[in-house]
Design brief:
By secondary structure, this protein is α+β, with helices and mostly antiparallel strands. The protein has a single domain, classed as Aminopeptidase. Helix content is 30%, strand content 35%. It has a seven-stranded mixed β-sheet with strand order 1-2-3-4-5-7-6, sandwiched between helices. β3 and β4 form a beta hairpin. The protein is globular, with a radius of gyration of 16 Å. It starts with 6 loop residues before the first strand and ends with a strand. Keywords: Transferase.
């Protein structure tokens, strides 16, 4: 049986908090493209549980995890707004353990996000991606995300500033 058949995507549960405390720092160490630098993630179990609760309790937020068996191998967090003028859109970020790259997990997470967005009156999804993250950009383009702008010197990677691309998709 292939790994792909064993991947399950679902919304986060409070019981996932402890495992996420181990998975997220690993993802951060495996690539320079994450929002945090290596070893910068330092939430306590209580803080992670509060973060999960905040996502579960906000109807405009979504926290998805990808599981291989019982192991969390990726996640996607979408943050929306409950303010009326901004309640139609939000921004997401995601990460996947390197051993599971190329298995379609990013595709599965994005498919679930888009279905959820349609059901929850989200009409616009945005993201920021490092310009040199070609794998991610190809994935986003596959889902009809389009280039909307740049943030010059938006991220510092290995003592060098890099451009962030702003991409978006209307639902």
């Amino acid at each position: 049986m292939s790994k792909m058949k064993k991947i399950l995507v679902r919304q986060v549960e409070m019981s996932d908090a402890e495992q996420l405390l181990n998975v997220i720092p690993t993802i951060d160490r495996e690539t320079e493209f994450m929002i945090r630098s290596r070893d910068e993630f330092s939430l306590s179990l209580d803080q992670e549980q509060k973060f999960i609760a905040s996502k579960m309790n906000n109807p405009k937020d979504l926290f998805l995890i990808a599981l291989f068996g019982d192991k969390i191998v990726g996640s996607l967090v979408f943050s929306g707004s409950t303010l009326k003028k901004y309640s139609h859109f939000g921004e997401f970020g995601m990460g996947i353990l390197k051993d599971y790259w190329g298995m379609g997990i990013g595709t599965m997470l994005l498919e679930e996000l888009i279905v959820w967005a349609k059901q929850n009156e989200i009409h616009k999804i945005n993201l920021k991606v490092v310009e040199s993250n070609e794998r991610a950009i190809r994935l986003y383009e596959k889902f009809q995300f389009v280039y909307e702008g740049t943030i010059e010197n938006g991220v510092l990677i290995n003592d060098t500033y890099s451009r962030l691309l702003i991409m978006g998709r209307t639902i």
